[in-house]
Write a sequence for this structure.
């Protein structure tokens, strides 16, 4: 699984480091190797935003075919765990903050 690389020192972050940094609400993320501020790229932020939006779309086929609520709950839990595991591989870092506009 691909993990992000610091745009300043070019060291690759581990999955665990990236996952921990995922839960900060700051725009800048400090590189654990060179201590420089890194920013998530515009394209990575767009991907990260779209990922959880797909979960409610699971309702359409499941509710259309009358799938059991228990099974639907299991599918949701598996999807959320999958997103949590997959999310660090979507991170791309930059030395400068990019506007979403």
């Amino acid at each position: 699984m691909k993990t992000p690389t610091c745009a300043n020192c070019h060291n690759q972050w581990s999955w665990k480091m990236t996952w921990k940094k995922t839960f900060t609400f700051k725009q800048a993320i400090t590189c654990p190797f060179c201590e420089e501020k890194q920013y998530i790229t515009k394209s990575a932020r767009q991907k990260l935003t779209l990922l959880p939006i797909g979960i409610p779309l699971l309702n359409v086929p499941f509710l259309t075919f009358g799938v059991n609520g228990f099974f639907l709950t299991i599918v949701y839990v598996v999807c959320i765990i999958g997103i949590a595991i997959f999310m660090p591989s979507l991170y791309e870092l930059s030395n400068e903050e990019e506007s979403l506009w």
